[in-house]
Structure formats: structure tokens, C-alpha cells
Amino acid sequence: MAFLLHLRNLFxxxxxxxxxxxxTLISLACYGQPSLTQSYNEPFVGNIFTKQLxxxxxxxxxxxxxxxxxxxxxxxxxxxxxxxxxxxVPSVPYGxxxxxxxxxxxxxxxxxxxxxxxxxxxxxxxxxxxDVRLNLxxxxxxxxxxxxxxxxxxxxPFSGTAVANGMNGSVNGNVTVLGSGTGTLIVPGGTFYSxxxxxxxxxxxxxxxxxxxxxxxxxxxxxxxxxxSQKFPILVVSxxxxxxxxxxxxxxxxxxxxxxxxxxDLSLDESFSIFPNPAKDYFNASLYNPTNANxxxxxxxxxGQTLQLVKLGNDTNISNDISITNFASGMYMIKTTLGxxxxxxxxxxx
Length: 350
Description:
- Helix content is 1%, strand content 61%.
- It has one helix at 38-41; strands at 4-14, 20-29, 48-55, 65-71, 76-87, 103-106, 112-118, 121-128, 132-139, 141-145, 153-164, 167-186, 192-209, 214-226, 235-244, 248-256, 272-275, 282-288, 295-300, 306-313, 317-323, 330-338, 341-349.
């Protein structure tokens, strides 16, 4: 399990004597898959996890429940990367103060999360940035207890002491983790991941410094999608909100870099079209095939199951009418494969 606790500076506010106060809160993110196990999913020293950010197009899929379809195929990959590494406690500044920690997560920007790993359990011991140190040694945040499957539910309070720019403070909060959905995930480029587990994590916290003069309320909700082919999540959607001396809101969509490689080369969206859409008795599939690769079309239901496979041959210009008279009204996905290129489009059958 990759349980990510990011500490972010949320605001700066001037006090009567022009003192600068910086408060930072916890962000907990928990990831899961159809059967998360400690031996497979928990990070260990030496692991590296690289994510690439996505730009959203329309509504962000985050529906919960069994047999869902989460379609991110129309989202675009931008050039921003986030890299997380896992290292030893002694290698990190102030590591000795987190006495029960067994390993550390680093974002490469001087921010660290300290974890305690024990049989079947992962806990957060503390976090620190260049400006803030939070220590949860006395009341750790339980990330979860293994294994994690659909229907898993755990809520755990946490508390600790803090030091920020020489000021003493405290933090109190709660983290709730749910195995909230199963289904099929489609990422940009049209790659399908079946048997995916969605884990919903909600964390709230109140941080207080300077004897309560500076207080921030923080909430983060994450939807994480895990597949058995990867140790780390395929995709994470993160919503953050902070209120208090300042207000902050953000949304990030992060795609496992292993799912990004080759996306720009494996899409044929520009040369492939289907019409009419909505359709009733048939639809026409048209595409340009300059390499004369073999082409197939799959009609998929809303949870990614293949209902029909049609072979379209390898002509340079392909245009075929495909009968849909036996299909009920509803939304379907049309997956077209041309050699090693893939496109997925939605089709409404009336």
C-alpha cells in the first residue's frame, strides 16, 4: 500500500508585530486494488513512484459501487511529473525524533513522511517540511490494516505536536479509508484495466499554532485506482480544501508513469470516426490505415466487458457498417485496435 501523507504550506498571515506564521496540514492518501496485500503493495526502501499529471476534460469520474466504469480516455497528459522515493529513517534530517518509524517517503523537495510498518498494519508516525515538523509518535494515524478489498472501512483519529518556524503547535484529525468501488479503468490512449479497486480516502485536520491565534481547517478526499499489474495506483484523483486565515482549493489527477509511456504513439483518435452517434440499427466505422495493419473493433458495455468483436481487415481506407440491432438502448464503448494503436469512443444506442 502506498499511503501518501503530504504536508503543504497553506497560508501566510501577518500578525501585529509583522511576524510571519506558516501553518501546514496533513494530507493522507491511501491506495488500494482488488486485494491489497502488505507483501505486494507496501513500499520498501529503494522504491520509486513517478506520476504524470492529467488535464481534465469535462466531469471527473469518481462514481462508487460495484461494476463501475471510470473513463479517463479523453483526458490529456501534461508535462508535469511528481516523483516519490522511499528511503531509510537515519538518512533524513531529524529522523531520530520519529522513534518508531521504519521507513520514509520523500517527494524530492525536502518534504518527508515517516511510516511505521508492522504485521498487517501501516501507520503514519510524522511528517516534516523545511519549515514544519509534525510528530504523531503518541497517537499515530493508522493508514489501514491488510488486506484491503471492496467493502473495507476504517476510521482512525490522530494527534500530535508540531514545530513551525520556532513556534510550538498541535494537530488533531481523522482519516477514513473505504474500499469504495470495483470496475474498469480507461486511461488516456485507451488502455483498459479490468478488476480495479477504487479506494476513497477522506482526511480532516485542525492545525493550531501561536496558542490558537493561527488555526486552519483542512480536508482532502482522494479516489485511488489500483490494478494487480502495478504495486502503486494506476491513477489518483485528489481534492484539497483549506479554510482559516486563508482559503485554498485544488484538484489534481495523477497517472502512474508506467501507464503513460507511449500514449502519444498509441492513439489513432484523429484518423478514426464513428457515425451516426447516437445510432439505432447500425453505425459506420471509418479510419485511415496507411501501414495496412490488421484492424478490429470491440463493442463494450458500461463496465468494459466485450460484447462483440468485429474484424475489419487491413485495407488502407476502412469503412464498415456494423449492425447493432441486437443491442439494448444505452451507452457503449467502441474500442478500435489498429496494429499496436488503440482508440476508445463512446456510442449511444437509441
